[in-house]
């Protein structure tokens, strides 16, 4: 197995995994080590089976089943989420998945099943590099603050942007998927600190006055989009892209020239070290 860095600051390619021969624990542990070092890893996985997709994910936590109606369901494997551009499945804003949950996904594993000739890239920014790019005084200010993450916030923003989502807002809010998480978190594997706010689900920062909270959130969201924190992946069919949700946020570029279908498996925390305070 060979590991080659492909991004300046984040991202690596892993070669030499033979999925037809099966996956042993040593190989899976090596993938995990590479992921926590590089935050994103790419593996050519044309021969990977759904069972192997799940086995890799289980190394990182409990397998998630579909929690919302945002994407499609696999016909036989409930832990696989089907993201299909033809069904209108897009996520063209910077975000970390499902931070409205008490235990958001720790690691995502996306497998390219049908890939357009052009477009449909996935872009990433390192929330860990973004934290480290702040001045020590500003880091000190953020430590100890918490932010509210809300599933309904997604639909409100879509409605404000002109999409016909008004009827969905009350339903989304009614689900009660609202959770408080620290603005700065410490990675459970590496101990590295990272920023856990994102524009899709973070509604506001608690612990300071409203005007101050909005200023802080706007500044952090703008700061995190600096190109030097980023990496962009151009998909090929069979690609397996694994990213560390504790370290990076992503953006699905909504410009595929043809249909784009990817299968996602997410690993959730299995103990209380990642639990937020549910309001």
Sum this structure up briefly.
The protein has helices spanning 25-38, 50-58, 127-132, 136-142, 151-160, 166-174, 210-223; strands at residues 2-5, 12-15, 40-44, 62-63, 72-73, 81-84, 105-114, 122-126, 146-150, 178-182, 184-186, 193-195, 202-206, 230-233, 239-244, 248-252, 261-268, 277-278. By secondary structure, it is an alpha+beta fold.
How does this model look, in words?
The chain is α+β, with helices and mostly antiparallel strands and 279 residues long. It has a domain at 2-84 and 94-116 and 235-246 and 259-268: Clavaminate synthase-like (Double-stranded beta-helix, 4-Layer Sandwich), CATH 3.60.130.10. The protein has 7 helices and 18 strands. The termini are far apart.
Task: Output the keywords.
globular; 279 residues; 7 helices; alpha+beta; 4-stranded antiparallel beta sheet; Double-stranded beta-helix; disordered C terminus; single chain
Secondary structure layout:
Blueprint: E1 2-5, E2 12-15, H1 25-38, E3 40-44, H2 50-58, E4 62-63, E5 72-73, E6 81-84, E7 105-114, E8 122-126, H3 127-132, H4 136-142, E9 146-150, H5 151-160, H6 166-174, E10 178-182, E11 184-186, E12 193-195, E13 202-206, H7 210-223, E14 230-233, E15 239-244, E16 248-252, E17 261-268, E18 277-278
Parallel strand pairs: 2-3
Antiparallel strand pairs: 1-2, 3-15, 4-17, 5-6, 6-17, 7-15, 7-17, 8-14, 8-16, 9-10, 9-13, 10-18, 11-12
Helix pairs in contact: 5-6
């Amino acid at each position: 197995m060979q590991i080659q860095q492909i991004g300046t600051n984040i991202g690596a390619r892993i070669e030499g995994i033979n999925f037809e021969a099966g996956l042993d624990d040593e190989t899976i542990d090596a993938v995990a080590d590479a992921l926590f070092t590089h935050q994103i890893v790419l593996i050519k996985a044309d021969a990977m089976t759904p069972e192997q997709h799940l086995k890799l994910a289980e190394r990182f936590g409990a397998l998630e089943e579909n929690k919302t109606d945002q994407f499609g369901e696999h016909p036989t494997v409930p832990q696989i989420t089907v993201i299909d551009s033809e069904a209108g499945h897009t996520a063209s804003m910077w975000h970390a998945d499902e931070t409205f949950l008490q235990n958001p996904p720790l690691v995502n594993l996306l497998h390219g099943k049908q890939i357009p000739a052009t477009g449909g890239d996935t872009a990433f920014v390192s929330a860990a590099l973004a934290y480290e790019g702040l001045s020590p005084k500003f880091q000190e200010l953020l430590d100890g603050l918490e932010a509210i993450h809300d599933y309904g916030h997604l639909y409100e923003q879509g409605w404000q942007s002109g999409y016909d989502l008004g009827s969905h807002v009350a339903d989304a809010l009614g689900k009660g998927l609202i959770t408080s998480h620290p603005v700065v978190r410490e990675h459970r594997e590496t101990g590295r600190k990272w920023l856990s706010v994102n524009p899709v689900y973070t509604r506001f920062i608690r612990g300071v006055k409203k005007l101050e909270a909005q200023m802080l959130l706007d500044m952090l969201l703008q700061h995190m989009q600096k190109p030097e924190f980023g990496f962009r992946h151009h998909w090929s069919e069979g690609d397996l892209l694994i990213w560390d949700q504790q370290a990076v946020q992503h953006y699905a570029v909504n410009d595929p020239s043809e249909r784009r279908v990817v299968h996602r498996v997410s690993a959730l925390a299995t103990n209380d070290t990642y639990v937020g305070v549910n309001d």
